[in-house]
Amino acid sequence: MENLQKPKVYSVSELNSKIKTNLESYFNDIWVEGEISNFYCHKSRHMYFDLKDEYSKIKVVMFYRNNKDMVFELEDGLHIILNGYVSLYEKRGEYQIIALDIKPVGKGSLILAFEQLKEKLEKKGYFKKELKKKIPIFPRKIGLATSTGGAVIKDIISVLNRRIDNYSLFVRNINVQGLTSGSEICEAIDDLCQYGVDVIILARGGGSIEDLWAFNTEVVAEKIIECEVPVISAIGHETDFTISDFVSDLRAATPSVAGELVILNKFEFIKNLISAVDKMKNLLIVIINKNRREVFFLINRKVFLNSEYLLKKFWQRLDDLSLNLKRNIEGIILSKRLVFENFKYSISEKDLISKIRTFYINLKNSYNNLDTGIINYLNDKNIKLKMLMENLQNRSPVSILSKGFSIIYKKDKKTVVKSINGVKTGEEVKIFLKDGNLLAKILEKYFKKS
Amino acid sequence: MAEKQKKELDFEKAIKKLESVVKDLEMENISLEDAMEKFEEGIKLSSFCLKKLNEAEKKIEELTRSEDGKLITKNLNIEDN
Hints:
The complex is a heterodimer.
Chain A: H1 12-26, E1 30-41, E2 47-52, E3 57-62, H2 64-67, E4 79-89, E5 94-104, H3 109-123, E6 141-146, H4 151-163, E7 168-173, H5 181-195, E8 199-204, H6 218-226, E9 231-235, H7 243-247, E10 250-251, H8 255-262, H9 266-301, H10 306-346, H11 350-392, H12 398-401, E11 407-410, E12 428-433, E13 436-441
Parallel strand pairs in A: 3-5, 6-7, 6-8, 8-9, 9-10
Antiparallel strand pairs in A: 1-2, 1-4, 2-3, 4-5, 11-12, 12-13
Chain B: H1 2-26, H2 32-55, E1 59-65, E2 71-75
Antiparallel strand pairs in B: 1-2
Helix pairs in contact in B: 1-2
């Protein structure tokens, strides 16, 4: 018995330390697959959870330095595959996996991160319709945050040029991908707001989910939500969806579409304006004709001396308005013509020119229609007036003229001189006789002795 | 900003008003006097819209910050293809 070696007695610490060394060297750099449960993130931002399968589980810790660059969030029930090593927490004698990297199983990390952020923001109510601001139809200042070097800005400008000849675009250059992209987008939105634009387009061309990543980050989403100016998100192709599309006030399927959504089509708009004016004119003519029939009816039944004067007043106002209208339209035509002349030299696209030509022809046609409309209408008016005059002839004071009386008007031909107090000595007057009128001058005034 | 938004509103309001003027003129029982008034208003609204549309100038500028951090704009030349 004395020969027997005394058994080696470890202290607890010694044993744990030895186990730890062995574990770490044996289970160095391993991959394990399982489901997360009991997830807990300490305020030191180290993460703790159990990884389990149907029958068994193991403790896992992931320190902050390893989890800080992870794009998606860990949560209970998430199916993952992790890389790390097995170690021992000596204080409690518990073994655990130290995780260095974690990937979701079944989908990419970015897609998972996208889905998680989308769900989170949706829960916060960020996608609600009530939050969406209205895009002004005619913004004075358009803000654009994009890369000034790419094709995107050219596309947008070319669409804008097709729609309107006088817009103000303020471009804030940003890197649309890369590490700084997210914070640059936020800065650009702030700067454009501060400068006082009426709407902001956030634009980027198509790319992979990695390329578009900045537009899927929480900082950008929060910035868009807090932005007081309406934001149009125009990221990638029609099939690309980003978080910024969901939180912005309007999603444009592509950057070019953003150019169409951000401002009215001026050329279209003027066309519509002209047809509205046309329509109003035609409606008014219908109403006037209807009223005229009623007035004729009255005149034929009883003497209604004021009717001629009233109608004259209406015609005069209508004439003034028609003239104004004609002048306005001529103004448009002239200014458009100048614009199109300029366009001819600055634009090479043939279809653009032909579009403008068609538009110009339409404009000219509607102008011509309007013009002949007014002329026809005025002719019509004259005929009707003549009829009215004939109708009135027997009752009108004009018929007295043929009996040798005359009417003295002031020079403006509007005011009838009824008293010698109505004119001054030296004033010129018009005297209406049955076959014409005379221009006369008051030489002296004699008051009637009563 | 506030003033600008007000102006903006005026333009959009004018369009809405114009639409309602046309609708009013389409009413069967409108009196001649009202119709003349509406027509006049409609013409005024259309010229107002036109004036607003033609007021602005075309410009494309880049917004940057100067060295002392101030917001500045400079003309941006982008070839429109």
